[in-house]
Amino acid sequence: MESKEVLSLIKNLEQSKTNDQIVLDILKTLEKEVVPTEKLLRETRVGVEVNKFKKSSNPEIAKLVRKIISAWKDVINKNKLKMRQQQQQQSSSSGVTPSDNKPDGSKENSVSSTITTDANGSISKKVSKFQSSKTRNAKNDGVNTIIYHIKLRDNVIRALYDSLAKESEHPPNYILQLAIEIEKEMNKLNDIMTHEKQYKEKYRVIYSNIISKNNADLKVKITNGDLTPNFLVTCDPKELAPESLRKKLEEIKEKNLFNAQGATIERSVTDRFQCGKCKERKVSYYQLQTRSADEPLTTFCTCEVCGNRWKFS
Question: Where do the H-state alpha helices sit in the chain?
């Protein structure tokens, strides 16, 4: 089935979404006649549209949608595996990998290294240093980032490679494998066939943090293997922020907690505490259990003279 025909069916599917019988007929047609390819699925977004009916109140529709999506994914994955095997056969027959040669035919001096992964799929951080006289990126390193032949995924791999390789001394094959693993985790979390928007959002968060001049430590941690691709993709975005920003956010959080709780909790005024700012002893306070039960209470103090606030445990 051609792209135009698929698009026509998608349009009819959208217009007839309240008619279960028509929806079923269209889905059955798609199941029988669509030969899924990455290009077709990307151009028509048929996977996204079909997936919208996954939570249909009609169990027959919901079941058929799951069957279609699962079948299409199986076909795509088999095609990917076949393509990878062909690429590996071509590389073995030529004896050259994409990172061996430079675009101009020259070779960079580098120490060879072995890329290994642990039981969790994390890339080993024990790699040799790589020196280059040019600004490091996929083009200058002679690295082929066309892995899946899907424009969006391959562009993400290239962007990740360029950002991680810049000013790095890790060899090209190591950086490439790292970029591939990160992108793979991204697609695993949000498959672009059905969740392209979320995939792009996750990519923007990771990429912007990697290239941030105020967050240089993050790139070092990633390339040294201190942060795994899985953690990078699944962690709270706040955990990727630079240390200074995390501290600032924590201070704001504590201040907001102080303000919110101080307004609702009854406070006692005492002369037991002295304000460190104005040295007066007219201080109101209250106590809360902010940590685990076996830890002491936290005391929140406010100077009734100058308004200065502090806490201690």
Answer: 3-15, 20-33, 38-44, 46-51, 59-94, 138-141, 151-165, 172-189, 196-211, 216-223, 229-234, 243-264
What is the pTM (predicted TM-score) of this model? 0.49
Q: Nearest 5 degrees, angle CA 258-CA 264-CA 265?
A: 80
User: Token match 């968060």: residue?
Assistant: 205
Report whether 39 contacts 24 (CB < 8 A).
no
Q: Is 296 in a helix, a strand, or coil?
A: coil
Number of domains in the chain: 3
Q: Whose structure tokens read 């699925």? A: 41
Residue 258 lies in a domain: no
Which residue segment(s) compose the domain that 175 sits in? 151-242
Cα-based angle 196, 200, 204 (whole degrees, multiple of 5): 170
DSSP state at residue 193:
T
Q: Does residue 116 belong to any structural domain of this protein?
A: no
* CATH at 301: 2.20.25.10
Neighbours of 62 (CB within 10 A): 14
- In a shared domain, residues 232 and 284: no
In this structure, are 238 and 273 located in the same domain?
A: no
Reported as a single tens digit per residue, the pLDDT across 289-312 is 777 777 888 888 999 999 899 998
Report which of 269, 272, 253, 251 is spatially closest to residue 261, judged by C-alpha positions: 253
